[in-house]
Each structure stands twice: as C-alpha cells, then as structure tokens.
UniProtKB/TrEMBL annotation:
It comes from Magnusiomyces paraingens. This is Mediator of RNA polymerase II transcription subunit 18. It holds the Pfam family Med18. Belongs to the Mediator complex subunit 18 family. It is found in: Nucleus. The keyword Iron-sulfur does not apply. PANTHER family: MEDIATOR OF RNA POLYMERASE II TRANSCRIPTION SUBUNIT 18 (PTHR13321:SF2), MEDIATOR OF RNA POLYMERASE II TRANSCRIPTION, SUBUNIT 18 (PTHR13321). InterPro entries: Mediator_Med18. GO terms for biological process: regulation of transcription by RNA polymerase II; termination of RNA polymerase II transcription. GO terms for molecular function: transcription coregulator activity.
C-alpha cells in the first residue's frame, strides 16, 4: 500500500507572487498550472454496528474521491488536434469532424457531475479512485497517510466508473475543483492551490446565449463555424468560484512512497521533506495540520 508523506502551509493572496517566484528558483522550473475535478462518493447505507460493552468497531467505511486532471486531458487532446490539423492542412483551426463532435468540448470543459445525463462523455474521462486512511498517530515530523488509488479501465460499451460505484453501494455527494500551480524539486511535489465550486448560474447564462445564437444558423458551413465558436466559448469561460471567501492559498509539499513497509524509503522521504522545509523557512512555514482533518471515514450518528 502506498504511503504519502506531506507538510502544509497557508498563504494569503498577497504573498502568492513572491512565493511562486522563489519556488521557481529553488525548483529550477516555472510554475506548472493544474486543474483537478474531484467527486466525493459515500456509502448509500452506512454500516452502524451494535456494540456491546467493551467492544470496538472492527469495520470502517470510507468516502471515495474520484478525480480527474483536466489540464493533462486538455494537453493530450491538443496533441490530437495538432495531428489532425497537419493531416487536413488547416491553419490552427479545429478540424470539422472534431468541431461537430458533441463530446469534443465536454471532454475538455469544466462541467459539473450534475450534467452527466446531458453529457455522458464525462464518465469516459480518465478518473482515478482514491481511498485515504487516517494519518498515523504519534510524534511525527510529517503527515504520514496510507492511500489506495486505482484508475479503472472501462471497455467501450461496458459499464462506466460511476455505474460501478453505484453497484458498489456508493452515491455521489458533492464535488469541487482544485486549481493552482505545482513544482517538482527532487522527489518533493509542491502544490499551491485553492478549492473552487461550480458557478451554475453563470454557466446557464452562457449556454442560453449560445443556444439563442445557434437558432439563426442554417447553412452547413455556418453550422460548423457556429459549433466551433460555441465550444470555444464554453472552454474559455471561467465558471469556477472560490469556496473560501478569504482567497487564501494552501501549499502542500509531498512525497509518495511505493510501500508502507519500506521503512528505509519512508525515512529518506521524511528527511528530504524536512530539508525542503528548512529551505523555504522564512518564506512559508510548513507544518502538520490537525490529524483528524484528514479523516474520511463515515461517522456513526
């Protein structure tokens, strides 16, 4: 079972620029933007054991986080578009067969799970399932947490990952987007991010304007152009809103160790994180958050 070691810090909006510049110098690379869509699923029927005096619950149920990296998805499709452009000798334009594909924009756009019925292509994204255990207790210098992550491969025409979760007895609860920047320094992955929700009102207004414009399009050539314009408006629209009104950023420095039983690797990773904490001391204060804030278990009521 993989083990993730980490340290956290909180940054005000005013310190973001200097932090990115300093981390860029330390890591020797520019900040890489990332955008991740996460869905949280919970058991439909939580297990509530009847415990006698002196007994403890031996069965724990966990929430499952289902996530997808939208930036990587976009980059992969950009490569596909470039290949198609060369084949059709187009000048930086979306090929017509992609422009008229109703799933093209959906695969790249920021869309909520609530639109799954209107856009089934959401279920075909490369989702990753993650279950996180409560971090280890004790006097540790870093957060040490066991993670189980899988990327299910669903054959064409077979059940979607979401149908699998439904049959597993899980139901969708909520979703959020993680938006920010990341660096890699040695084995340390540094992420600076904020959590966002979906602005359904702004998205609805944008869709209404696009649909109204499409009503007046009749010729086939114009229909293709309208499809391209409509999809680009959806892609370029920013329909995310910050969940934290203070606009603060969260910074995490983490190292993933392949196995929880590899004590030497865990010790080396811990030492590397501590060195990184010393390197950025004075810029940010990396520390251990409250252990219970990482608890994804289903609580008994």
């Amino acid at each position: 079972m993989p083990q993730q070691l980490s340290l956290y810090a909180s940054l005000p909006e005013s310190e973001l620029k200097i932090t990115l510049q300093t981390l860029s110098s330390i890591a020797g690379m520019p900040p890489q933007p990332f955008l991740e869509h996460s869905l949280l699923w919970a058991p439909k029927h939580p297990y509530v054991p009847v415990l006698a005096a002196g007994q403890v619950n031996q069965i724990e149920q966990y929430r499952i986080r289902v996530s997808c990296d939208l930036i990587s998805l976009t980059e992969e499709e950009e490569e596909d578009i470039e290949i198609e452009e060369k084949k059709e000798n187009s000048n930086k334009q979306i090929p017509p067969h992609l422009a008229t594909d109703p799933d093209y924009a959906v695969k790249r756009a920021v869309l909520p799970y609530a639109d799954i019925s209107a856009h089934p292509a959401l279920s075909t994204r490369p989702w990753t399932f993650t279950v996180a255990e409560l971090p280890e207790a004790g006097k540790l210098s870093v957060i040490s947490q066991s993670l189980i992550s899988v990327s299910p491969k669903v054959p064409a025409g077979d059940h979607t990952p979401f149908e699998f979760l439904d049959k597993l007895g899980y139901v969708f609860r909520t979703e959020y987007w993680t938006k920010g920047y990341q660096f890699v320094h040695g084995n340390v992955v540094v992420r600076i991010f904020r959590l966002c929700g979906f602005d359904a009102h702004a998205f609805k207004n944008e869709l209404e304007q696009i649909r109204e414009a499409e009503k007046n399009v009749q010729p086939p050539e114009a229909a293709v152009a309208a499809a391209v314009a409509a999809k680009n408006e959806i892609l370029e629209g920013d329909f995310l809103r910050l969940l934290d009104a203070t606009k603060r950023w969260t910074m995490v420095a983490l190292i993933n160790v392949e196995s929880i039983t590899d004590l030497d690797a865990i010790a080396r990773a811990t030492a590397e994180l501590e060195r990184f904490r010393a390197d950025v001391a004075g810029l940010v204060d990396l520390e251990l958050p409250e252990r219970n804030s990482f608890d994804t278990r289903i609580k008994r009521r």
